[in-house]
Amino acid sequence: MGSLPLDALQPLDPDTFAADSSAVVDFLAGYYRDVDKYPVRAADLEPGRLRRLLPEAAPEFGEPAERILADVRRDVLPGLTHWQSPSFFAYFPMNASAAGFAGEMLSVGLNVVPFMWVASPAAVELEAVVVDWMARLVGLPDRFLFSGSGGCGGGGGGGVLQGSTCEAVVCTLAAARDRALGRIGHEGIVKLVVYASDQTHATFQKGARLVGITPANFRVVPTAAASGYALTGAAVRAAVEGDVARGLVPLYLCATVGTTGIGAVDPVRELGEVARRHGMWLHVDAAYAGSAAICPEYQGYLDGAELADSVSMNPHKWFLTNMDCCCLWVASPAALTAALSTDPEYLKNAGGGKPQAAAGAGAIDYKDWQISLSRRFRAMKLWFVLRRYGAAGMRAHIRRHVAMAEWFERAVSADERFEVVAKRRFSLVCFRLRGGGGGGDAMNRELLAAVNASGRAFMTHFVVEGKFVIRLAVDGAMTEMRHVGDAWELVQRTAEQLLQRR
After folding, report:
1. According to the model, what pLDDT value does residue 104 have?
2. What is the pLDDT of residues 232-246, one digit of tens each?
């Protein structure tokens, strides 16, 4: 299809829509067939490369989709790190799937904005259904369910789909802050303290700053190998009691199930008891490992969740739901909406009154559960994944990755040159070449750099107790056992070459 003349521009012409969409689908199908042929990490890391390739200004007239896709293939793909490569073992995954893509197409294609019930009733109600489905799948207590509380927004619990954990954290911190300030007065904000571990994601420090908590009142509680790098109730209790003695007010405690660095699991029940004793908001961050809780053998890691005020997990990480999608459940939606709600005249129904008054007490205005006003129809995407693969299929998906990580862990342990640094609980293996001191760290840095430079695999690192650790996260939708085996052979061969040179 050629360029479109100005007087013929019809942005949603069904025939053009079908032709352009088909061209994109064909392009992506070819990309996924060949994705393992690309260097996993961006082949060209020179800053400014793409700017030099592209024109300085947008085109005056429209161009055919085929020409645009040809430029994507020639100019864009070489500068991408291929997150869907079966040899991508870095960070945590951002899983894609055929069902996730189909759900995303429906979401984007329908392009509704369900910020209020009246703005798209079915989209809002589908979201409430889907977050309840997910809560049951991961074994959350009924207090986090809409249906377990006498109806949507009826004074019990409920859930919302955010874009990321970062958004969920800011929202829950704001709710905790306002709940506390309602007791102690707004001038008391300088006394509020947030607690997390040295393994907790940096998102929580960022979120605390955004809601007005002074950085001096963010407590990073140390962890140690003896506890599996998990927070302990005793350590938190000591930090809290010290702050209370100084006249400060404990506000918020984060318990993580599957930390980013090494996959550590904090004891939710133990921390929940400390939080209850001191009136703190307890948030359970299960962004990565929450997906594993659909398997009964992993639900024990969420034991004590009934003591939490909020729980979050990211289906876009390990649950085959394309970016972006974060489930946030709260025990008290009223606490969240009290901090985040707005009610301007232009958002009221034309007939007068709020949607809840017009549609019944069960209607939800999700604009009051999030930072922004506008929002995407994320529920369609997650619903499509759940419908297409089912709970049994998703459990098989999780267990397959765990089995591959178990194999890698055994292989590392069997090679006396290497050590597994932290206990593997899910599909993340943390390892390093043996050797103490700075020399050992330098050697491991060199090993990781060489592995990544090969283009055959991509891994990332973490530093724990001063040790440089290599992380291998087995979570790719296209990853098979042969890819994990190839990665281990690459690590061994590269390490041998490094050791021979020393």
Report:
1. 95
2. 999 999 999 999 999
Amino acid at 453: A
- The token pair at 418 is 């290497």
Closest CA to 430 of 468, 466, 470, 463: 470
| pLDDT attached to residue 94 | 85
At residue 161, what are phi and psi to the nearest 5 degrees?
-100, 110
Nearby residues of 357 by Cβ (< 8 Å), 6 or more positions away: none
* 42 and 120 both lie in a single domain: no
User: Is 445 among the domain residues?
Assistant: yes
- Residue that is written with structure tokens 């008054």 in the block: 357
pLDDT at 154: 39
- pLDDT band at 359, cuts 50/70/90? very low
Which candidate, 243, 201, 245, 203, places its Cα nearest to that of 219?
A: 243
Burial of residue 500 (CB within 10 Å: 0-12, 13-18, 19+) is exposed
Domain containing 246 equals 112-376
Domain of 30: which CATH number? Answer: 1.20.1340.10
d(CA 454, CA 457): 7
Sign of CA dihedral 140, 146, 150, 153: positive
In a domain, 382, yes or no: no
Q: How many domains does the chain have?
A: 3
The structure tokens listed for 240 are 């809290």
**CATH number of the domain enclosing 266:** 3.40.640.10
428 pLDDT higher than 60 = yes
**Are 459 and 347 part of one and the same domain?**
no
- Looking at the structure, do residues 360 and 275 belong to the same domain, yes or no? yes
Dihedral angle sign, alpha carbons of residues 338, 340, 344, 347: negative
Residues 307 and 189 in one domain: yes
- Let me know how long the chain is: 502
